[in-house]
Amino acid sequence: MQHTLAGEINQTGIGLHSGISTHVRIRPSEAGSGRYFVRVDLPDTPIIPAQVAVVNQTVLSTQLGKGEAHVRTVEHLLASLATMGVDNARIEIDGSEVPLLDGSAKEWATAIASVGLMSQPSGEDKVLPVLEEPIWVRQGDAFVCALPSVETRFSYGIDFDVKAIGNQWYSWSLGSDRFATAPGAERTNSAESFLTEIAPARTFGLLHQIEQLQQSGLIKGGSLDNALVCGAEGWVNPPLRFANEPVRHKILDLVGDLSLLGTFPCAHVLAYKASHNLHIQLAQRILELGLVVSSFTTNNH
Prior knowledge:
Number of strands: 18
Number of helices: 6
Mean pLDDT: 91
Radius of gyration: 18 Å
Structural class: alpha+beta
Order of helices and strands: EEEEEEEEHEHEEEEEHEHEEHEH
């Protein structure tokens, strides 16, 4: 069985990098259509599929594009849809960037849980690929890899030269009957786990980098209301929701980026000091090896 939303979701907010307010309406979509964006503000309402093949930028967020149309900072919303079990969704947006909201995925995940899911007969078995050999992508001392595993698990490490963050590690298992698990794997309620352990983790930044990023045309919509800011003396806007909120947010970004595969592979994905760019490189390697081939296609995309 596939699943779509049992109702509509509406959210309005400011984009992190553009600083522009956009409205998002997420609607149920037919079986086999997958998760895809529709730029309702542009002529002919172009469709942008949430797929690795259309990623065209990874600077401090993930951007998808097809033709002249693009949509940026998609990772938090897509992580919520994928982990909450939404296979098919039409995401209508009237601008080029998904709202940051409070800097986390909490509002998206809560809204999905509120409207619920509707089962959809797919007419075919859903293939859950199992990784049999390690895959590595690295840049300097940063890396992301996928290792053979009996469950779908994400582990992340970060290391910042500021005392309040420092070195942090966290591991989170997707595991659920609806996702890629192999015999012997512990099964958990992935939707509830995502809601409580990953979704509330907010984006974060370093105080001494803010001016430079703004001069580069980035984080125009960032504020103390939608991002954690850390300086040499500690957090500018505490309290944190978790003692290790930064590394949990990195897992949120990783999950959102790998959701572009369409189906999470049965693997342990391990990242250290990685980035959206490395996340996407790993997803591309997985596709190149033929481990994940999304069966979700429509005539529109």
